[in-house]
Amino acid sequence: MKVMVNNRASCPTLYEIHPKFGLLRGREFEMKDLYTFDLTKEKSEETYEEICSAYEKILSKLNVKYTKVAGDPGNIGGSLSHEYHIPADAGEDTLLTCDSCGHSLNKELLKSDTQSCQQPGCHGLLTESKGIEVAHSFLLGTKYSEVFNARVKHSSTTSILEMGCYGIGVTRLLAATLEHLSSDEEICWPRLIVPYQVIIIPQKEGYKHDVTMDLASQVYDRLNYPNEVVIDDRTHMSIGKRLIEAKRLGYPYAIILGKKVRQYLKLHTCLLDILNKLILKLQALESPAVLEVVNVYDNATDYYSIDQLSEKLFDPKVTL
Question: Binning pLDDT at 50, 70 and 90, where does residue 319 land?
């Protein structure tokens, strides 16, 4: 028998006594807590590994580097504890990782000033790094269940419950990933949680912007990801200025309706049917690769047809 108590009603809002570092340690923050109860120590250890594996899957799916380290149970107590850190110079925790066996721990656990790995049979050296803690797990044993006499009857016997407690910082995770991935000039989001995947930037006023605005709407509809795409309709600004802002805000991709689109429009002599002809061409199988797509994070540019956009920009493994 296993019982998991998950605070699913809402992530509890907690209050930091000493807020600092902006969003990394705000006055208020949200935690997703979990408490587990098992009949035996062996089962509780299995549950512990199951929850730890779930945290690792979350961090892996975010596609960010992280370090799982042996942690200090502190006042919470218990026989086993692990912390999950995202590397960042702004982190308050000092992490030690062996350059040989890969064992990692929080420096708080080191009982001496030695820089040698303490694992049996390992002679590697410990290297220091800074990390931001985003999750923590504790194997509590019977520390609290004994105090409250938390027992359960099963198979004609009575057992004291073996407990575990776990927490992952929802708001901390958001701030920590941004701190880890971004630069001083540009925000870089994990693709899984970026607010929008694509920004479409049509021409500036005076450069056939009315036609490219209509084309932007067509591209938006054709992508068929309404909650992932934004049209930047501030056509009083140049494409360059809007692209700079897109990079600062962290859009992974920018579709530029720029020079190649204008050149393509010049092939048509009748202004009244420019839009219809362009749309028909773009909807055809041989639609031209005139849409400039900027991969903001990789600083790479390529040209695609409208039919290629969804395939090139949206990875189902990322956007689901």
Answer: very low
Q: Is the pLDDT of residue 175 over 70?
A: yes
Average per-residue pLDDT for the chain? 83
Burial bucket for residue 159 (CB in 10 Å: 0-12, 13-18, 19+): middle
For the whole model, what pTM was predicted? 0.79
Flag the least confident range among 60-74, 199-213, 232-246: 199-213
